[in-house]
Amino acid sequence: xxxxxxxxxxxxxxxxxxxxEMRSGNEDxxxxxxxxxxxxxxxxxxxxxxxxxxxxxDALASFRVDSRVSDLAExxxxxxxxxxxxxxxxxxxxxxxxxxxxxHSLPLVxxxxxxxxxxxxxxxxxxxxxxxxxxxxxxxxxxDVFLGTTETKSADLKAKLNDVLMAQDFQDLTGQIIxxxxxxxxxxxxxxxxxxxxxxxxxxxxNNHHDAIKAEGPMVPGVKTxxxxxxxxxxxxxxxxxxx
Amino acid sequence: MKILIVDDFSTMRRIxxxxxxxxxxxxxxxxxxxxxxxxxxxxxxFQFLVTDWNMPGMQGIDLLKAVRAEENIKTLPVLxxxxxxxxxxxxxxxxxxxxxxxxxxxTAATLKEKIDKIFQRIEGGA
Lengths: 244, 126
What we know:
The complex is a heterodimer of chains A (244) and B (126). With 244 residues, chain A is mainly alpha-helical. Helices cover 80% and strands 0% of the residues of chain A. In chain A, helix 1 (2-24) runs antiparallel to helix 2, helix 3 runs antiparallel to helix 4 (133-167) and helix 3 (67-127) runs antiparallel to helix 5 (170-196). The longest helix of chain A has 61 residues, at 67-127. Chain A is rod-shaped. The two termini of chain A are 72 Å apart. In chain B, 47% of the residues are buried. In chain B, 48% of the residues lie in helices and 17% in strands. Chain B has helices at residues 10-22, 34-42, 60-69, 87-96, 108-125, and strands at 3-6, 28-31, 48-51, 78-82, 100-103. By secondary structure, chain B is an alpha/beta fold. Chains A and B meet through helix 4, helix 5 and helix 6 of A and helix 1, helix 4 and strand 5 of B.
């Protein structure tokens, strides 16, 4: 501040001298004063440039310290790619599982319906007393077979319907993964904003504190989660080792 | 027996609800995170809790701790059904007093097995 005031005073004095010399018609002295003014301008320009360079250097240095940026580029983005690929696999599997169950179930229902239509027609004949004893014996046998297969097919159908139900668990698991990727995108956005502010502001290093029991969402093949066990059996083993 | 199912994803709540019904538990209610679940549990209406871990608001592990800290519901059986499967997390849940731990994706058979086990222990311990 003090240096700038001295420089400004000096520039002001030179400018006043320039006016005086020009009015007096002293061309040589006026030209000399003008030269001094230009030189003073150059000095302050260099000073500003120096200041900017220093700030830029500081900002770059602090940005390098912010390991979050390199973490994002080296680890989190490839991670997110794996996670999203896993989402595709899970939704694909769920769709396949559901469609297989439906494709398996439809013929079961059709069979039951077809035989029911046939038996009902015969039953109508029996009610109208249009059936002889031999035909009735055959009808009774058909009904017995029908009841048996209906029982088996209903159980099969129920299992398939349960399968369709269970296949929907992908929605929860993929939802958790996608929520994590959304958080990552927000993180990338924030870091990009920091990058833009780089020339004017110092970027604070991110606190990389890691909470061991913080929720991390579903396991993703190809993405390593430190300290994770694999599957229900491993969970059961761990719990039983804890006296469960 | 009335069971409270806590998960932020309604699909998973419906799956668990249907599986429980298949196992003969028809009386269930749902909550979408710990914050909503805790006041429901405090009424003392529920005899069993099935909870997810990773939820906005109050997480499952904090709900478990809150239940254990509440005098009138501290013995409520709690089954955790979650995608979280780090050693530290499972140990933390065990230390907080979880009664069973199932990792997603799971099967109907696993759910039945864990619930049976919890009731066997309760009856054995009583």
